[in-house]
From TrEMBL:
Name used for this protein in its record: Tripartite motif containing 55
Domain B box-type: from-to ranges: 119-161
InterPro entries the UniProt entry points to: TRIM/RBCC, Znf-RING_euk, Znf_B-box, Znf_RING, Znf_RING/FYVE/PHD, Znf_RING_CS
Subcellular compartments: Cytoplasm
Residue ranges annotated for the RING-type domain, each copy included: 26-82
Native source organism of the sequence: Monodelphis domestica (Gray short-tailed opossum)
UniProt keyword annotations, A-Z: Coiled coil, Cytoplasm, Metal-binding, Zinc, Zinc-finger
Region (Disordered), start-end ranges: 205-226
Molecular function as annotated in GO: zinc ion binding
Gene Ontology cellular component terms for the protein in this record: cytoplasm
């Protein structure tokens, strides 16, 4: 009975630690926040380095020095809620540090350094005494060393589980950074198109009385110039997309 209660207590404690760890993961690098941690106006958190990377991806033409943008001011969007973050003259270094999150990270790391019990580590279902420590590249599943030597994966190619995890996490992080930068550029083009549409509508409204007076001659002239306007519009849109 005592052993069962201890196991349930340890399991609940592990679940709590896992839940806490998920709250301390940066949405860009997908790792635990690295100090200094900055808090955005929308109350989401980022590693300051990741915030700098997003800012550079959203503003690729700003001057950089040593991989860090040297221009002051600017803006980027929060990767969690898409809220626009406007920076002051200090850039990302002007964002407020979240000391509370940094303290929680320190406490979490202290608790995580305690030696884990064997029962808390993932074990192989086929070989109960073997830890899951490798990844089968053919079947794309984690497994244990005994399965590779004697079991179902003896003819498969395998790799250390930690190496596969780090590689996939790095690929996913790079993909997210590219998507964030591309989305910001697309949003900028959409904003320019909307502004152009509003300008065209204003010009159209202001020229309406003159068009009514001119009557049929104005309509005929507009019809003759219509292909030219379409060609100009497509050329202008292509220049924006480039």
């Amino acid at each position: 009975m005592s052993t069962s209660l201890n196991y349930k207590s340890l399991s609940k404690e592990q679940q709590t630690m896992d839940t806490l760890e998920k709250q301390l993961i940066c949405p860009i690098c997908l790792e635990m926040f690295t100090k200094p941690v900055v808090i955005l106006p929308c109350q989401h958190n980022l590693c300051r380095k990741c915030a700098s990377d997003i800012f550079q991806a959203s503003n690729p033409y700003l001057p950089t020095r040593g991989g860090t943008t040297v221009a002051s001011g600017g803006r980027f969007r929060c990767p969690s809620c898409r809220h626009e973050v406007v920076l002051d003259r200090h850039g990302v270094y002007g964002l407020q540090r979240n000391l509370l999150v940094e303290n929680i990270i320190d406490i979490y790391k202290q608790e995580s350094t305690r030696p884990e019990r064997k029962s808390e580590q993932p074990m192989c279902e086929e070989h109960e005494d073997e830890r899951i420590n490798i990844y089968c590249l053919n079947c794309e599943v984690p497994t244990c060393s005994m399965c590779k030597v004697f079991g179902a994966h003896k003819d498969c190619q395998v790799a250390p589980l930690t190496h596969v995890f780090q590689r996939q996490k790095s690929e996913l992080s790079d993909g997210i950074a590219v998507l964030v930068g591309s989305n910001d550029r697309v949003q900028g083009i959409i904003g320019q198109l909307e502004e152009t549409c509003r300008t065209v509508e204003i010009m159209s409204d202001s020229s309406a009385p003159q068009g009514q007076v001119e009557g049929a001659s104005g309509s005929r002239e507009g019809a003759e110039n219509e292909p030219t306007r379409h060609v100009f519009s497509f050329s202008w849109l292509n220049s924006l997309s480039e």
